[in-house]
Amino acid sequence: MNDLCADIGWKSINHIGEQLCGDHVEIVEQNEDSTVIVLADGLGSGVKASILSTLTSKIISTMMAAGLPIEECVSTIAATLPVCSVRGVAYSTFTIMHLINNETAEIIQYDNPQVIVLRDNVNYDYPKTEMNIDGKKIYKSVIRLHENDIFIAMSDGCPHAGIGMAYNFGWKREDIIDFMETMSVAGLTAKNLSTLLVDECDKLYGYKPGDDATACIVKIRKREPMNILFGPPSNRDDCDRMMSLFFSKQGKHIICGGTTSSIAAKYLRKPLQATLNFEKSDVPPIAKLEGVDLVTEGVITMNKVIEYAKDYLGKNELYEQWNYKRDGASLICQLLFEEATDINFYVGRAINPAHQNPDLPINFSIKMNLVEELSKSLKEMGKRIKVSYF
User: Fold this and answer.
1) How many whole angstroms separate alpha carbon 179 and alpha carbon 212?
2) What's the CA gap between 363 and 298, in Å, rounded?
3) Quick count: other Cβ atoms within 10 Å of Cβ 181?
4) Residue 86: how many other CB atoms lie within 10 Å
5) Each residue of 192-238: pLDDT tens digit?
6) Structural contact between residues 65 and 30, judged by C-beta atoms closer than 8 angstroms
7) Which of 2, 217, 221, 374 is the most buried (most CB within 10 A)?
8) Three-state SS for 148?
């Protein structure tokens, strides 16, 4: 088994005036190394399109994940979903990306814009085989995965962006490829690449989208372990055991909390150096400790990280607030959201006497909830999470 993994990110914008998006992305994990991703584009926009695309993506992803052949999936979709009585055309178009053992990608495309593949940041012209299933022309490709391969699936709202405004015939495929080749060089995550692509479409629509536009991006990368220590152990005698486990793990090391960092400094026999660099007024400054990649304050910093994590999973509007800053919360986000693939939490259950002041909005249960909330958000980002309590 190789040490590759898939970083998956997507973003949508709705047709102007619509509450719901007519596109839908469904991601189903078969196991730790095999994943089915479906991007479906429902006919038209609004509620009807949303229902059609949601049903299409749910049915296909569930059947594919169960190991059923594509012919059966498409036949089921054809039999299940209605055909538009007015136009007499397809209920929903779709793109399927099936990652198998993080070694090969099976791409199945029906009437959506062709998936763009970037290899070494340059467009890769992959082979396609045409199939006819129930009278529908479907393209199938099997691609051997390489590190840093980028797969870009889109609904037709992306190439239609700017029709009659910025461009006569929309944003051409070649122009989208040029745009994404330039963006891919920066080493951004799949989520941030999809955000940049969809935001550019929104701009070309004059921020009044004439269609739902969705981009789903899969980036193949090497596994990157990361370790985060949060809070001292409930039993003081466990300090050395907790520290030895934490520092023996491969990957970068982050420590959150004043008491915790003091224990780590004592264990490492290195001085803990405070910095007074208040880059953001609402985030306490970081500290320096030789042998540790990042030392931050605990609860307040972690709260900020969770705020950024929830936004990152949604509209990703706060991206610029943390991606270029050097405060504790921003640095944790850069490490956990962008670099890490496997994250080990070492959480101490000790009750901090400073948090027992009734005037403070912090208590033990809030601290545990922070870990649970952050773990949940990171899992939704596709990270592997392991939490150990002490």
Assistant:
1) 20
2) 12
3) 15
4) 7
5) 999 999 999 999 999 999 999 999 999 999 999 999 999 899 888 88
6) yes
7) 217
8) coil
CA distances 130 to 25, 96, 152, 180, Å, are 24, 15, 20, 26
| Category of 180 on φ-ψ map: left (φ > 0), alpha (ψ -120 to 50) or beta | alpha
Every domain of the chain and the residues it spans: 4-222, 225-389
With helix as H, strand as E and coil as C, how does 224-284 read?
CEEEEEECCCCCHHHHHHHHHHHHHCCCEEEEECHHHHHHHHHHHCCCCEECCCCCCCCCC
Tokens encoding 231? 């809070």
pLDDT of residue 6: 94
3-state SS, residue 104: strand
Give the pair of three-digit tokens for residue 24: 């839908």
- Asked if residues 10 and 39 have their Cβ atoms less than 8 Å apart, the reply is yes
Q: What is the pTM of this model?
A: 0.89
**Is the domain covering 4-222 a CATH 3.60.40.10 domain?**
yes
d(CA 14, CA 210): 9
Strand order in the sheet with 4-13: 4-13, 213-222, 150-154, 116-119, 122-123
Element (H, E) at 56: helix 46-65
- At residue 252, φ and ψ (nearest 5 deg) are -75, 160
Convert the pLDDT of each residue in 142-197 to its tens digit.
999 999 999 999 999 999 998 777 666 779 999 999 999 999 998 899 999 999 99
Q: State the Cα–Cα distance between residues 319 and 333, nearest whole angstrom.
A: 10
